[in-house]
């Protein structure tokens, strides 16, 4: 079997099951662990009419947001942000992080999206950095190749490097902010960073010649290699929610269903490696678990993947 090489950021397990969404879920601990840029691009292009409708909506939203920002209407700006993110994920449900799997989580996630966007919009330092980024973009030069519009390399990569640096610096403070603490559960920092970069890549890839496209994918961590793997030992089972067939690799604890976007628990109990007592498998089996009986730390998946 030939698949892209993904490794779980939490337990180190390889990706072994086929996937259909842009987001990669671990087949052993159920963690939201990576992004496949190419599938994200496919989702964007699968319905041109829907995409054009979304673009028109976004232009109007940006105009309204700019007006609210200039008037200092923070509450109005927040409401516009909230409505935009709801429209975005309703239009492109495949882009909703798979960790957002209940209405309550969705509401909390939208609240954080709107709040963080509003705080950034009214922050002077952020606005100055955005102004610099806009200046880089305005300096870009374009040319035609076989009827396609391309962007000149030198100016583009100056802008791209600034965008990547700006995004990384912003994430350092973002995840330390208690107002956004819920994202540590919903959206791991490395994956969130890739989501942000994926959006940038999707916008600019059509304007790049092949060599520049490869360079950008390497810069942003999306030039994943394909590897040949044999399917590991395991068994076929079914999703506990939609009853779709799923392959459960031996040693797995939680496996994601691509059909209904929910995670099935494969094992509910584990035996302590020290005393042998039975313990409940936690919601996140990739983290160390303290035995309820003897107090010894157990690493459920480390034994498999080291």
General description of the model:
The chain has 306 residues and is α+β, with helices and mostly antiparallel strands. The chain has a domain at 123-223. Helix content is 46%, strand content 15%. The protein is built from ten helices and 14 strands. The chain has helices at residues 37-45, 48-70, 74-91, 103-121, 124-138, 153-174, 183-186, 189-204, 210-220, 302-305, and strands at residues 2-4, 23-25, 32-35, 142-145, 148-151, 226-228, 234-238, 245-249, 254-256, 263-265, 269-271, 278-280, 289-290, 297-298. Strands 1-6 form a two-stranded antiparallel sheet. The chain has a two-stranded antiparallel ribbon with strand order 2-3. Strands 4-5 form a two-stranded antiparallel ribbon. Helix 2 packs antiparallel against helix 3, helix 5 packs antiparallel against helix 6 and helix 6 (153-174) runs antiparallel to helix 8 (189-204). The longest helix has 23 residues, at 48-70. The two termini are 23 Å apart. 23% of the residues are buried.
